[in-house]
Design a protein that fits this description.
The chain has 288 residues and is an alpha/beta fold. Helix 6 packs across helix 8 (215-228) and helix 8 (215-228) crosses helix 10. The relative contact order is 0.15. The strands form four sheets. Strands 2-1-3-4-5-10 form a six-stranded parallel β-sheet, with helices on both faces. It has a two-stranded parallel ribbon with strand order 6-9. It starts with a strand and ends with a helix. It has ten helices and twelve strands.
């Protein structure tokens, strides 16, 4: 099976390469090899490679900057996805597209099912929602949209690596306590995505690790587990603050827990609790 991977240099792209099944002929492209904002380059790549699947992990993910770089965010998150769907409709290929909890308003108090109404609060969320809509219109029967949330892993900038750096540099941290979601390790997500491809799963699905947390809970766990593994030398106070005390250009969902039950059932997956996944990731980091 020939698979084209976009966003190969990103943290999820790296995990997908590490966990690639032996039967997969993987063509992994980073931004320099395949620029998602270049429509002509994208069309040519699909026509020449003619992949059985495209895994689209490439995205404009700088959430706050997207508020001022609307055109670029739209080109990568919406227009490029439309182009992929159009070209795969011609070649007969399938599309696995990674989407986000940011397509929702975050105003629920129970997990979002895949069929929940999209109500993005930010430019980033709106452009990702537009990409989803393009797939639904252009490639409805040969596509798999997987929404995920709070992704972290080796080889990328994310909440875990940022917290480890700040915990080593500062004598005190403040972290938001009133935004709730599920931390998701790239390795567990990547393994699930390969399973989904093997089973030719289609439709819209959700995939995260198990459990829920606030950013504050996540930060406390990072410090505790990093101290156990010698990644930090000493503990510092971590103070919980409301999100109103940490204003950002983009509005973030206050509640973004995703209901992954259908996806887990479809691929026979028993997800790790997020704290157990975090422990595994930090063990990897400590032994690398």
């Amino acid at each position: 099976m020939k698979v084209l991977l976009t966003g190969a240099a990103g943290q999820l792209g790296q995990a997908l390469q590490r966990l690639r099944p032996n039967a997969i002929d993987l063509i992994a492209c980073d931004r320099q090899q395949l620029d998602l904002s270049d429509e002509s380059e994208l069309r040519t790549a699909i026509q020449q490679i003619r992949p059985d699947w495209v895994i689209n992990t490439g995205a404009y993910t700088t959430v706050d900057r997207a508020e001022s770089e609307t055109d670029l965010a739209s080109a990568i998150n919406a227009n490029a996805v439309q182009v992929l769907a159009e070209e795969l409709a011609k070649t007969g290929g399938n599309l696995l597209h990674i989407s986000t909890d940011f397509v929702f308003a975050g105003d629920r108090n129970q997990p979002y099912p895949p069929e929940a109404k999209r109500q993005p609060l930010s430019v980033y969320g709106a452009t990702k929602a537009a990409g989803e809509e393009a797939i639904a219109q252009l490639l409805p029967t040969r596509s798999l949209i997987v929404r995920t949330a709070w992704v972290y892993g080796l080889g990328g900038r994310n909440f875990v690596t940022t917290m480890l750096r700040l915990m080593a540099e500062r004598d005190r941290l403040t972290v938001v306590w009133d935004q709730i979601g599920t931390p998701t390790w790239t390795d567990s997500l990547a393994a699930a995505l390969w399973q989904a491809i093997a089973q030719n799963l289609t439709g819209i699905h959700h995939c995260t690790d198990a459990g829920v947390a606030s950013w504050y809970d996540f930060a406390v766990a990072i410090q505790d587990l990093a101290l156990e593994r010698g990644l930090l030398q000493q503990a510092i106070p971590i103070v919980a603050i409301p999100s109103i005390a940490y204003p950002t250009p983009a509005t973030r969902p206050a509640y973004s827990v995703l209901d992954c039950a259908d996806f887990n059932r479809a691929i026979g997956r028993d997800p790790l609790h997020w704290r157990h996944a975090l422990a595994q990731m930090l063990t990897q980091l400590a032994t690398n």
